[in-house]
Amino acid sequence: MITQKLNDQITRIGPNTPAGAVHRHYWQPAALSDEVTNDEPLVPVNLLGERLVLMRGASGDLVLTARVASPDEAPTHHPAPEDIRVVDGAPIYPVVEKNGIMFAYLGGGEPPAFPNFDCFRAPESHVFAFKGLWECNWLQALEIGIDPGHASFLHRFLQDEDPSDSYGKQFRDMAADTNMPITQVLREYPRPDINVDETPFGLKITSLRHMTNGLTHVRVTNQIFPSAICIPMSREMIITQWHVPIDDENCYWFTMFTSFQNPVDKEIMRAQRLKEHSLPDYAPLKNRSNNYNYDPEEQKTKTYTGMGLDINVHDQWAVESMGAIQDRTREHLGRGDAAIVRYRLMLRKAIKAVETGKLERLPMQDRQETPQIIGPLSNDAIADSEDWLAASQRSDMQRRTACPWDATV
């Protein structure tokens, strides 16, 4: 457990807060490219506790600046373009478009370079971007993503689906080189050993599910500082997902789905997700108001939660049910929370670095023309228990070698 003072320090993200100051030293997703059209030349953006507007400047470049808004404006409020008023003399924040997402930098000075992550260097044809609203603080949204053990329970499927209908869905693929669905692996081996290693971009999290016959299921996921994760979706795709603070009590997840082999079928993936979200606010249709469509009969035979087969809804329920800001003064972390513990230490070190002006100690503050950070490795593999590390790396290299775009590491 931690004190209330520390909980406030690591969760609140307004302009004059410790965690907010850290976030302002990084590029943050501000909007989807789909939101910025000729019909919508001014797009309201609520980010890091600020009420902003995304628009094209006189030179045609995208810029982000402050707009007039009431202090109690709802985080998903979308005023009509004719009602948007720009604040005179407000800072102009730079914006860069990367594979379907508009990233903004709200800090001072020169922004850092984008790392050479797979989601950024893959061609546009191999990346699909989407977002969704969660009504909770950004940190609990992130922490569920770096908890490898939760998938065996929260996402437990009591029946395994036909993998031929797995496209665009997580935990539907077959485990590597087997006829066993990932859902079965997670269900039958629910207590992984968890290794956590610090990296230049954040944390590498390896969960080991020791199976029968001397085999081990190896799942490598990553925490990308300050608020993103990179995880395997299937043997072909990875997910890079940012948990972007709107304000202290709401966040958007922005996701890039990156394919190593074939171009992404964006129409299928967009249609799958639009069935679950309303526009223009990208709010989930299953939410607190309808109890996330909880069905006790389904819970008896199909899923652990009784909330359908979309695992995003399971995560949403879990993080929103903790309250707008999770009360960490009552928690008791254990061995399975190793990545969460390491991340919070990293965040506190980053807060201290910003407060003391030692910005060189922040992760991923590379300002060289050629980004030095590549990858990262995010995949599932099944290997001999004595050879799990090398086997995981070989699996990643095989996928990259066959990739039609430059995925070399």
What would you say this structure looks like, in words?
With 409 residues, this protein is α+β, with helices and mostly antiparallel strands. The protein has two domains: 4-25 and 118-401, no CATH class; 27-111, Rieske Iron-sulfur Protein. Helices cover 22% and strands 26% of the residues. It contains ten helices and 18 strands. It has helices spanning 4-11, 18-23, 118-121, 138-145, 182-188, 266-274, 296-301, 311-320, 338-355, 388-401, and strands spanning 27-32, 43-47, 50-56, 62-66, 93-98, 101-105, 116-117, 127-134, 193-198, 202-210, 215-224, 228-232, 237-247, 250-259, 277-278, 283-284, 374-375, 379-384. 43% of the residues are buried. The model has no long low-confidence stretch (mean pLDDT 91).
Quick structural summary:
The chain has helices at residues 4-11, 18-23, 118-121, 138-145, 182-188, 266-274, 296-301, 311-320, 338-355, 388-401; strands spanning 27-32, 43-47, 50-56, 62-66, 93-98, 101-105, 116-117, 127-134, 193-198, 202-210, 215-224, 228-232, 237-247, 250-259, 277-278, 283-284, 374-375, 379-384.
